[in-house]
């Protein structure tokens, strides 16, 4: 049954119709487990069982899943969560927007190495790992907007092997300090969103100020959403202010 489910979702991920966010997430979680097992401690934690299942016919989102993926410090993979290789080889876009994800550990997307776009906006993320997006050699878009992230891992971008990263969206979070040399490994990102964060005016803001002076032409903010993506964003480095 496990192998059948994986094969079915593989086919869905490569078909013309993109699987829903719920289907992708449930596949992603299921594919992380050995056949016939439940989620091991430290691999994934859910709220009530009913809140961990997709209901495609439900019109409201009142029963959001409460999930937390987390790899403990100094561990790249919790015991019992290993697989021999990629499961979602063809998945390019992963939508996990507006769930209740609270944390992401290291290499949590390693089973989908072809990912190009990862949407995590509108969650409750507070913790990330240096290697959260490791193993994604084709990654182009990271959307972390609308979360509760208070600090960025210093090597978050450095661990990304992709040379084609285009978008890093951190808008509307709780980040107060930009780690020194955070963008040094990806100095020319075309679309960076940093507004609506409580940046603190202190000596530590020096690197952020230098980055804005050098790369202000690549710093954007979201404005009223429209059908045209380019019309819904605006180049505005001055939207990044410290307090």
List the helices and strands and how they pair.
Layout: H1 2-14, H2 21-30, E1 44-46, E2 67-69, E3 93-95, E4 117-119, E5 141-143, E6 167-169, E7 191-193, H3 206-215, E8 219-222, E9 233-235
Parallel strand pairs: 3-4, 4-5, 5-6, 6-7, 7-8
Antiparallel strand pairs: 1-2, 8-9
Helix pairs in contact: 1-2
Order of helices and strands: HHEEEEEEEHEE
**Major pleated sheet:** 7 strands, mixed
Average of pLDDT: 76
**First-to-last CA distance:** 55 Å
Strand content: 5-15%
Helix content: 10-25%
Widest sheet, order of strands: 3-4-5-6-7-8-9
Number of DSSP strands?
Answer: 9
Secondary structural class: little secondary structure
| Number of helical regions | 3
What general form does the structure show?
globular
Structural Rg: 18 Å
Q: Which residue ranges are poorly predicted, with pLDDT under 50 across at least 5 consecutive positions? A: 1-17, 19-23, 30-77
Considering the chains and any ligands shown, give keywords for the structure:
14% helix, little secondary structure, globular, 9 strands, 243 residues, 3 helices, seven-stranded mixed β-sheet, two-stranded antiparallel sheet
What does this structure look like?
This protein is low in regular secondary structure and 243 residues long. It is built from three helices and nine strands; from the N terminus they run ααβββββββαββ. It has helices spanning 2-14, 21-30, 206-215, and strands at residues 44-46, 67-69, 93-95, 117-119, 141-143, 167-169, 191-193, 219-222, 233-235. The strands form two sheets. A seven-stranded mixed beta sheet has the order 3-4-5-6-7-8-9. The longest helix is centred in the N-terminal third of the chain and has 13 residues, at 2-14. The chain starts with a helix and ends in an 8-residue tail after the last strand.
């Amino acid at each position: 049954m496990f192998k059948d489910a994986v094969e079915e979702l593989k086919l869905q991920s490569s078909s013309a119709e993109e699987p829903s966010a719920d289907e992708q997430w449930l596949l992603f979680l299921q594919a992380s487990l050995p056949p016939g097992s439940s989620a091991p401690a430290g691999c994934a934690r859910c709220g009530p069982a009913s809140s961990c299942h997709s209901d495609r016919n439900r019109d409201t989102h009142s029963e959001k899943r409460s999930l937390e993926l987390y790899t403990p410090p100094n561990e790249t993979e919790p015991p019992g969560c290993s697989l021999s290789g990629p499961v979602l080889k063809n998945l390019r876009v992963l939508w996990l927007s507006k769930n209740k994800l609270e944390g992401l550990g290291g290499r949590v997307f390693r089973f989908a190495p072809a990912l190009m776009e990862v949407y995590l906006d509108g969650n409750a993320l507070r913790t990330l790992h240096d290697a959260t997006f490791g193993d994604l050699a084709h990654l182009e878009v990271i959307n972390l907007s609308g979360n509760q992230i208070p600090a960025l891992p210093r090597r978050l971008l450095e661990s990304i092997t992709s040379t084609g990263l285009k978008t890093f969206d951190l808008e509307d979070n709780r980040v107060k300090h930009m780690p020194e040399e955070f963008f040094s490994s990806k100095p020319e990102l075309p679309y960076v969103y940093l507004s609506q964060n409580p940046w603190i005016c202190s000596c530590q803001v020096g690197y952020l100020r230098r980055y804005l002076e050098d790369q202000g032409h690549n710093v954007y903010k979201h404005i009223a959403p429209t059908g045209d993506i380019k019309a819904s964003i605006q180049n505005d480095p001055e939207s990044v202010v410290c307090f």
